[in-house]
Design goal:
The complex is a heterodimer of chains A (339) and B (323).
Chain A (H helix, E strand, L loop, with lengths): L2 H7 L3 H4 L4 E12 L2 E13 L4 E5 L6 H8 L8 E10 L2 E2 L5 H7 L4 E4 L3 H4 L6 H12 L4 H14 L16 H13 L5 E5 L7 H13 L5 E6 L2 H7 L2 E6 L2 E7 H6 L4 H9 L41 H5 L5 E4 L2 E3 L9
Parallel strand pairs in A: 3-8, 3-9, 6-7, 7-8
Antiparallel strand pairs in A: 1-2, 1-4, 4-5, 9-10, 10-12, 11-12
Helix pairs in contact in A: 6-7, 6-8, 7-8
Chain B lengths: L4 E12 L13 E12 L3 E5 L6 H8 L7 E6 L2 E2 L5 H7 L3 E4 L3 H4 L6 H11 L5 H14 L16 H13 L5 E5 L7 H18 L2 E6 L2 H7 L2 E6 L2 E7 H6 L4 H9 L49 E4 L2 E3 L6
Parallel strand pairs in B: 3-8, 3-9, 6-7, 7-8
Antiparallel strand pairs in B: 1-2, 1-4, 4-5, 9-10, 10-12, 11-12
The chains are: A alpha/beta (339), B alpha/beta (323).
């Protein structure tokens, strides 16, 4: 009996509507010669069944570190998950041993990485690599596993005989399709996609997003990206991260149309909109300054040195994430709607 | 718009020949740039867009003679660049500068920022050390960096700050033309906007013309007066950026525009996507290079190569169905 069905027999109705994955108060730090640096600072979020959730932010904001911590893929040390819980299936993933984690990775939760070339084994054909996952997690024999790999590749529109190709014989877009096929091999309940289209051209990005969209029925997706366009294309709900903290969350449409946090608003305004005629002398509404480095986080709200609305209070008090509307949270001292 | 021609490119080609192997048939050359022609007027910003591998960077480097062309003509302010000797070329480079995509690999990591900014003056024979230091400091201020950065090393700067240094170095000798090769692609969104604004400021203050290379049609449409769309070594469409956006004619341009994720959620559900990848430039398909991915191709597209023709004033398209 497949894992999922067996699991479902024992849960009550209430649990069925509970989140697929829940992260509580996660803090991740790194020991460096400059001392202990906190990359992720007490974030909490959940992923609902069948949902596509986007984690957005600029480089260094902690989005990838958060994603890698879920599957405990960070090298520990130097990384250290200093507090928090990662709840999946009623278990805290942080309390599992190495063997139990290996059973979980690729079977219940799988991951797609940004650069498909460095994530694939260059000396195995792509069919063999996908079969490896199946041989590790199922009772299939080699023949069946290879057959299933070919089926999976057809599912991501790489028909036979592509399974007999080596990664270097495939283009970037095709390699990313292989990664997706591999991630799907054991029908995982959660798929974590870390910048899956960043290394790809815009036409290929559109194809991959289309493919990810078609997976929504099969799995819950946590997509990590810096691109708000990608968010609008694929996500139902968004978390915006800045300097290791979640600064705003909400349904994609509402958040993009009416951002509450000055940082979210600034990110949206920084993108040139297609078809808006540029007046002579007009400029983009850029956010001034730079993202603070990990050892130079300002006191108070970490965004205040770059914020056009910053008040005295923002320099000393770090705002807490608070509920604004039914599904929307923001961490900002400003009254929502005053932007 | 000024109609004085600053840069005129005619049928520029760059083919890379593969290494000869013993007892093997030589493989065909990679036709990275395969006959492109365009004109850049004084004070104008021309965008060159396309996917990776379409030849846009090779085109830029060839026309600055950072790599030698296979054939073609490039005239800059009336001087034919490919006729010049090396020393003459070095002299004319004062007038034409380049900004690179990755600022970290474009500067010497062992030199302080102040030194990096004095180098253009030293190379071009300005010997007065004190004046050079002064000019380097002015450059820093011009690109919005404080004098604190003068004695720092590149690794102490963020990507956006270092790209400003790259821009400062490019404007050091008051060039007429700056080739900006993906100057914002490596930067975060909030920093991208700052750098684009800086480039716009400098253009107005210093009367610079840009050849702006990017894969991001959104940025190009915002930044440029005219846009040339490249596919597999050729220009397939060339027009004002408004025309490109409002009435794209080539099916490839249309596909690029459609593929840009829109910020309006749920808008893109009904777009037709182009299938497949960009073909190998060593083995381009027969006929129009785009026909294997083209949704509207006809029989003739598989046999003949369409020329870039003017179909409306200033709007050039290389597609049989639009001629």
């Amino acid at each position: 009996m497949p894992e999922r069905v067996r699991f479902n027999l024992f849960i009550t109705k209430k649990q069925m509507s509970s989140p697929e994955l829940e992260i509580q108060n996660l803090t991740v730090s790194f020991s460096t010669p400059r001392g202990k640096l906190t990359a992720v600072n007490g974030i909490s979020f959940h992923l609902n069944p069948g949902e596509t959730l986007a984690l957005v932010g600029e480089s260094g904001c902690g989005k990838t570190v958060s994603a890698l911590s879920i599957l405990r893929l960070l090298p520990e040390p130097p990384a250290e998950i200093s507090s928090g819980k990662i709840l999946f299936d009623g278990q805290d993933l942080l309390s599992l041993n190495a063997k139990a984690l290996q059973d979980l990775r690729g079977r219940s939760i799988s991951m797609i990485f940004q650069d498909p070339m460095t994530s694939l084994n260059p000396v195995l054909t792509v069919g063999e690599q996908i079969a490896e996952t199946l041989l590790r997690h199922t009772t299939m024999n080699r023949q069946e596993a290879l057959q299933k790999s070919a089926d999976l590749l057809r599912r991501v529109e790489l028909p036979s005989p592509k399974e007999k190709h080596y990664p270097h014989q495939l283009s970037g877009g095709m390699r990313q399709r292989v990664m997706i096929a591999m991630a799907l091999a054991c029908s995982p309940r959660v798929l974590i996609a870390d910048e899956p289209t960043t290394a790809l051209d815009v036409l290929i990005q559109a194809q991959i997003l289309e493919l990810l969209r078609s997976l929504k029925k099969e799995t819950s997706i946590l997509i990590i990206t810096h691109d708000l366009g990608v968010v609008a294309e694929i996500a139902q709900r968004v978390l915006v991260m800045y300097a290791g903290e979640i600064v705003e969350s909400g349904p994609a449409k509402a958040l993009l149309n009416n951002p509450f946090h000055p940082y979210t608003k600034g990110l949206i305004a920084s993108i040139p909109k297609l078809g808006t005629k540029k007046k002579p002398g007009a400029r983009l509404e850029a956010i001034s300054g730079n993202v603070p480095s990990l050892d130079q986080r300002p006191p108070g709200c970490s965004f205040h040195p770059r914020c056009a609305w910053a008040m005295e209070k923002c320099k000393t008090q770090n705002p807490q994430l608070r509920q604004i509307e039914a599904q929307r949270q923001v961490s900002c001292h400003l009254e929502p709607g005053s932007l | 718009m000024n109609t004085e021609k600053l840069l005129e490119v005619q049928d520029l080609k760059k083919h890379f020949l593969p290494e000869k192997k013993f007892l093997e048939d030589p493989s065909p050359p990679v036709r990275a740039v395969d006959g492109i022609s365009f004109t850049l007027h004084k004070g104008e910003t021309l965008g060159l867009v396309g996917e990776s591998g379409c030849g846009k960077t090779t085109a830029a480097r060839t026309l600055l003679r950072l790599i030698e062309p296979t054939s073609g003509q490039v005239s800059f302010c009336g001087t034919d660049l490919f006729d010049l000797k090396e020393a003459e070329m070095r002299n004319i480079r004062k007038e034409m500068q380049i900004i690179f995509q990755d600022p970290y690999s474009a500067v010497n990591p062992a030199r302080r920022i102040g030194h990096i900014l004095q180098e253009p003056f030293e190379i071009h024979g300005f010997r007065n050390k004190k004046e050079n230091v002064e000019k380097a400091k002015q450059l820093l201020e011009q690109v919005g960096l404080t004098l604190d950065y003068f004695n720092r090393y590149p690794h102490e700067l963020s990507g956006g700050q270092l790209q400003r240094v790259g821009i400062a170095r490019a404007i050091a000798l008051n060039p007429k033309l700056i080739v900006a090769d993906e100057p914002v692609s490596a930067l975060d969104v909030s920093i991208q906007a700052q750098v684009i604004n800086l480039l716009l400021d400098l253009k107005e203050k210093l009367d610079i013309s840009y050849l702006f290379i990017s894969h991001d049609l959104g940025v190009v449409e915002y930044f440029c007066d005219r846009v040339a769309v490249m596919y597999l070594g050729k220009i397939v469409e060339l027009a004002d950026s408004e025309q490109i956006y409002n009435s794209p004619q080539h099916p490839y341009t249309l596909a690029l525009l459609n593929a840009i994720p829109s910020l309006e959620p749920g808008q893109s559900k009904n777009k037709t996507l182009i299938k497949g990848d960009i073909p190998d430039p060593a083995n381009p398909p027969k006929g129009c290079a785009f026909h294997i991915r083209c949704p509207i191709k006809e029989k003739q597209c598989e046999e003949k190569i369409p020329a870039l023709k003017e179909i409306a004033p200033g709007h050039h398209v290389a597609c049989f169905l639009k001629h």
